[in-house]
Structure formats: C-alpha cells, structure tokens
Design brief:
- The protein has 467 residues and is an alpha+beta fold.
- Helices cover 57% and strands 9% of the residues.
- It is built from 20 helices and eleven strands.
- The strands form four sheets. Strands 1-2-9-6-3 form a five-stranded mixed β-sheet.
- The chain is globular, with a radius of gyration of 22 Å.
C-alpha cells in the first residue's frame, strides 16, 4: 500500500526487495525511484559517472534552481570549504567552543532539575540547537556576530532550509501526494519570504561590509597566516576574489550567501538531530553510562588554570563513546537517505534503469546485513566498534550513514568528533538521561536522518558531577 512507504518503510521496502530481487522500482512523491539492496549499494554510491550524487541530492532536496545558477558546483564548493575552513582547524575549534558547551550543559541540567519539580521539562533538542547555532555563527562569521537576534535568525534559517529541502515533507498529506504543489509553496515561503526578510535583511549588510573588509585584508599582503581572521567567510572571500584584484561582484556575493545558507542548515539541524538519537539511546541503555563516565574521567585534561576540560585530543580518545555513536547511527533505522541520479540508461541486475531517475540503497539492508554482522545483526552492541577500531566517522561498504566515496559527508568530523561528543559528555558528566514515557517513538520512519525521536528526555542531576 502507498501509505506503507511512509508509515513502515523498513518492512515495506524490505519485503519488496526480498520478493522481487535486489532492484525494485517504487513510485513516491511523483517520482519513480529505484531501490537496491546491499548487493549493489557500494556500486551505486561510488560510481558517480553513472549515478550522480550532485544531481540526485539537488533533486531530492528541491535545490535544482540553485544548482542551475551555480553551474553544478554547489556541493563541490561546500566540500572544499568544510575541509579547508573547518576540518583542518579542528584542534583550534574545540579549544574555542568548549566553554559554550560547558555553559549550556550546566544551564540545561539546572533547568531540567527545575522541570522535574514542576513537570515542565525543557526541550533538549531546542536547547542544544541554540548551542550549535552559536558554534556555527562563530565558525562561519566570527564571535562578533553572536547576538540574540542573530542566533534566532540562524535557527530560523536552519528550520527554513530543512523545510525547503523536504525534511518535513512526509508530515504533510500535500507533501506526500501532491509534491509539486508542496515544493512550490515551500520555495515561495522560504526563498521569497523567510530568507529575504530574515537572513538577508539582518546579515546582508554585515556580510557585505565584511566581504569588502576581508578582500582588502587579503589583498594587502600584510597578514601572516596566523593573523588571518579564523572564520569561513574570510576563506570564502579569499577563494572568490578575482585574480586581477577587482571587487567581488553582485552575483558572486549572492552565491556566497547561498553557500552560507547551506552551511548553516547542514551544521545546525542534522547535527542536533543525531545528538538527540544518541541521548535517547543512552536513556534506553543506561548500562552504558558507567563505562562512559569512567572513560570521561580518563580523557579529561587540565588547562592552564587547573580546570578540567576536553580537547580535540581527548575527544579522539573517547573511543567507547565513539563506538556507541556509530552503533546508534547504524541501527536507528535509516532507510533511503542517500540519493543518486542516473546519468544514462544503466543495467543493474536484471533491470535497466532509465536515464534521469533516482537510485538509492536501502540502508537497513546494508546496516543489518547478517552476512556482515552475524545472526544478531539487529541487536544493539554499543562498544563493539571500540574493539575493532572502527571510528564513528569511518565510512565503508557496510556503513553508509554518511554516504560513500568522494561525496561522503565532509562535515562528519566536526559533527561527530566534536559537537555531538561535547553535548553527550557535558551532559552525562552532570546528569543521567531518562525518558518520561519509558520509551520513544520514531517520528518519521522514512527520515530518521533529519528527524529526532519523539519522547520526553529528562536529565536527572548527579549528586556528584564530574564537571
């Protein structure tokens, strides 16, 4: 039944693949999509000549107009900026943002304690979305941009881009069954109303001035690398300054705004969602808390004043937590998150997939493959990856959470190794996560990548906190 695709996709797709073979065609949201099982997953995700990541991602995320304006370079440019502007500076970034996570974890636990008394429990998702929004502001623009209004705009942009790229489409009957009408409505709402009257009106004048200022700084030749502004906007300006030194033009400035919008969405929304999956699973599996707290005690370092803190090195040493995160991501129920688009007619198994169609692996057949994970492939084993030295950010044919090949998610190092670990460790150092209902629900079974679980997370403060 069509509704099964949205309400029970694991079972619906799984049964169809088991019955009809390793490649099936399914109509969804007005498209004929081809779903493959674990047999062809690696081939589909790594052969970009036949299965285009850029065309598939742009189409499924409703970003084709932006891809057309950028002549297809959007995703490659984003990858380069994340790699050079963020991943290359991870050690420095952890040092800068550690106080934010400490401050907000302490504040949330205090609010949670009050919520236990009043019955009004604060939202962990909303609270730490604010933390990651502030981190994103600092990394993209610099600390001078951190104001209450600017933080609100970042969260609004993140929500708007999530809506534009279809992250809430499965909750709407129109989105599911009249997708073109839904796409048109969200494009008008987000691109013609929310972003122009929110992000561009507030950030536009500031970013415009900073582009001019950074261009002059870069052209002066008087700055040593260590004295350059430590934000992504400066890197963008250096990258897009014309070789002849001319002023960056209007079209290029518009493209810079598009890049910043995409980075805000990727940095804030998805990272916050995954952090909640980890915390909810810790609430369901409290037996993992003591070993994780023991590990926290081992990896904590002292700063110049003697205060305890976490660094990039100590976060890398938190291997048990890293393993737990990897297992959560393996088993949280991803179905068809990673899309590709055929560039020509492609023979696959007994099927010839026509040019211009979506193709995606069924992630659960990969992540729960008994040939790889044994007969208990669906059984949660949180520390197994520490024993085999497979990090949460490590991709592979049996772990496609971040995609696979040259277009694997470039921001996973910041999201997993820094932000999510900081959220989890800062919280369990002060409190024990529990669920008010004793369990949680999957809010969107077809989209666990960008939708948090549904439940009430309650943090019970420790008598003797670790931090």
């Amino acid at each position: 039944k069509p509704e099964d695709i949205f309400s029970r996709p694991r079972e619906a797709y799984g049964e169809a693949l088991a019955t009809h073979g390793p490649v099936i065609g399914v109509r969804r949201k007005g498209n004929l999509e081809y779903i493959v099982n674990q047999e062809y997953a690696r081939y589909v995700l790594t052969c970009d000549r036949l299965f285009s990541f850029e065309q598939g991602s742009a189409a499924i995320m409703n970003l084709q107009p932006i891809m057309a304006l950028t002549e297809g370079s959007l995703f490659r440019d984003l990858q380069d900026l994340v790699r050079d502007g963020i991943v290359a500076r991870i050690d420095e970034i952890v040092y800068r943002i550690w106080p934010l996570f400490q401050r907000d974890a302490k504040d949330f636990v205090e609010r949670a304690a009050e919520g236990i008394k009043t019955g009004q429990h604060p939202s962990c998702f909303d609270h730490f979305r604010g933390t990651i929004a502030e981190t994103t502001l600092i990394l993209l623009f610099g600390p001078d941009y951190v104001t209450r209004r600017n933080l609100e705009i970042v969260e609004e942009v993140s929500n708007g881009m999530a809506e534009l790229t279809g992250q809430y489409q499965n909750f709407s009957l129109i989105g599911k069954y009249i997708p073109m009408l839904w796409i048109l409505y969200t494009w008008i709402k987000v691109m013609l109303v929310s972003i122009p009257f929110g992000f561009l009106r507030t950030y536009g004048p500031l970013v415009w001035k900073d582009i001019d200022r950074y261009q002059k700084l870069a052209a002066s030749g008087n700055l040593a690398p260590k004295d350059e502004p430590r934000n992504v906007l400066y890197l963008i300006v250096k990258t897009y300054t014309p070789p002849d030194g001319r002023r960056i033009g209007m079209f290029r400035r518009l493209y810079i705004a598009i890049l910043l919008l995409c980075l805000i969405f990727a940095a804030v929304h998805t990272t916050t969602v995954v952090s909640q999956w980890v915390l909810y699973q810790l609430a369901v599996h409290p037996e993992y808390l003591d070993p994780l707290r023991e590990e926290l005690s081992r990896v904590l370092e002292e700063d110049e004043s003697g205060a305890l803190r976490l660094t990039a090195a100590s976060l890398r040493e938190a291997r048990l937590l890293d393993s737990f995160i990897r297992e959560v991501m393996r088993l949280k129920g991803d179905t068809i998150a990673t899309m590709r688009y055929t560039t020509c007619d492609v023979p696959l198994g007994d099927v010839i997939i026509p040019k211009g169609h979506f193709v995606t692996p069924m992630a659960t057949t990969v992540h729960e493959n008994p040939e790889v994970f044994g007969e208990q492939s669906r059984e949660f084993n949180g520390f197994q990856w520490a024993e085999s030295n497979k990090e949460a950010v490590m991709t592979g044919p049996a772990h496609i959470v971040f995609g696979l090949g040259r277009f694997a998610c470039p921001g996973r190092v910041l999201a997993i190794n820094v932000e999510i670990k900081l959220i989890v460790l800062s919280l369990i150092a002060r409190a024990t996560p529990t669920l008010l209902e004793g369990k949680f629900e999957v809010s969107d079974p077809l989209n666990t990548v960008t939708q948090p679980p549904k439940g009430t997370l309650v943090m019970v403060p420790l008598e003797k906190p670790y931090l």
